[in-house]
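Action item from last week, closing it out:
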Amino acid sequence: MSKVAILGAGSWGTALAVLLNNNGQEVTLWSALSDEVEELKKTREHGSKLPGVHIDENIMLTDDLKTAMEHKDVLVLAVPSSFTRKTAHDMSEYILSGQIVVNVAKGIEESTLYTLSQVITDEIPEARVCVLSGPSHAEEVGKGLPTTCVVGAETKELAEYVQGIFMSDVFRVYTSPDILGIEVGAALKNVIALAAGCADGMGYGDNTKAALITRGIAEITRLGLAMGGEAGTFAGLSGIGDLIVTCASMHSRNRRAGILIGKGYTCKQAMDEVKMVVEGVYSAKAAKKLGEKYGVAMPITEEVCKVLFEDKPAGEALKDLMNREGKDELPGAEWK
């Protein structure tokens, strides 16, 4: 049995707390919001974010960060990406040298263009940082529906240790040394999901969505390879796997926000309606900047940014994507 603190009591943090408790781990669930903690203690359910999922009495609930972190083998950082740096900074006061931090959020920090594990390492250099990602909606993990993810770490030993904590008959975990590739795929799929949602909101069909998914993974892969990621990662769970589920499911807040934007809502109106953090909105500008930094063409990401931040109509953005100059699907492939 390992002692695990989940830092962040949103839908994903809560679902992972339930999963790890069912796995026989000793679990503490922390939130910075005292009102949230009191409500969870009272109801043992996150009614607004994860209704119907019971939080076992064995799971300790607290709003005290020091208490949550003390004597823990693993710290799972599950706050939204925009709060990752602040939370990591606050954690640095109590961290132990070599303590394991597992990042489960998905995003790129716009100001630095760091992945979230890089942000955490920047704030807590003495921690051993790894990442858990993949096609994993909290609503399904909380209910024990079969799910598969990948853990990325610098050493196989660390990856296999974290794998063992999370693995169960309903949650299968693979290991990988490609932390960077995993996080790039995890962050950018949310941007593509906004585009897929816009297409749904405008009433387009399966052909359109398939095109966005396929060309979306192409530009994610181009960027990921330029940054130093492994090609196989983008064909795996945190690449095409996470992209498919985020573009196709109504559990996806990015897709839901995109649907509303496709129907004519502004970005702010869509985010207010979804009532949860829409990570793709925060990652879109960073993704565009990364494309510019590495000289990688990212046409879907660029059009998403114009829709989100320049009030470009979604229909016009899609038309412009369709009317781009003709391209080879396999640049560099030899013709007979």
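Closing note: The two ends are 60 Å apart (CA to CA).
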